[in-house]
Here is the input.
Amino acid sequence: MKKTGFKLFLITVIILAGVFSFISNLKVLAQNPEDETVVETTGYSVLSSPPQQSALVVVFGGYYSGNIEKKGFTTYFEFKKNDTNFNTDAKETIKIVRERDVKESEYFYSSPELNLFSTYYFRAVGYFNDNPSQKFYGIVLNLRTGHIPTWATTYPFSSVGYIQPVCISPQILVNGVCENPIPTPPTPPTPPTPPPAEGGTGLVKCGTEKYVKGDKDANGRDTEGQIKNPCGFYDILTLIKNVINFILVYMVIPIAAIMFAYAGFMLMTSGGSTERKSKAKSIFVNVAIGLIVVAAAFLIVQTVLRIVGYDKSWEWFGF
Here is the structure.
């Protein structure tokens, strides 16, 4: 009986937890996206200006919404003269701190001290009292003090709806609203242009191209059938270098490797035969001497080519 009662209690707890979770999710889903906390800069009003009054009276206007829980909320304005960079030296108006009877949304105003005949930029700012580090900003607007716009005839006047937002980089103005620009995909790097071919293939890279019909030289003379890349002294040196490299890389080294392998095989299979051992050692020595001779000949040829002015004589070594 006790076990049955405990099971019923456990099932009841699980069901209640599921119901509360479901209700909580429904509450989150039912919230309108517009319920998010938003601070807007609505505009400004000029109440008076000299000579009507002894001082300029300007009122900034703002609006906040989305305070669903009606938590303590503080609002004010940031403004700066002749500059839209609010990160440094920006001035602040008196802060309106709401702690009791906080509304979900509300207009707010402030009257700062401004100089005449100057351009000011300003924006509305708001934050929850329990988290002043997370601030909400309105768009940046501007005004020219001491100047009556063309659409106004006298003081007082209000600029609500007549002002052009000033966007702070990287934001841009889209349909009267400051928005972050859509990132442009990076331009793929341009592949490097391959170096022009030296002409021809194989050991000889000159004298292989001819002018076709219609080609003319610098003097306008017909060059059809003539050699486009005739061979010169430099090409002869290139031919010598290519022949030496071909013999060394494609003939001497593979043959030497084969002979070394053959001598090693003879040495391992000689058993007690003195003659086979002697022959294997002789092959080792002769191949090594041959490699030294070829290397010396290669160095001599490359040195001679360098002396006569062939500046690519050492490129086989990567120089």
Observations:
- The chain is about 30% helix and 20% strand.
- The longest helix spans residues 233-268.
- The first strand starts at residue 38 and ends at 48.
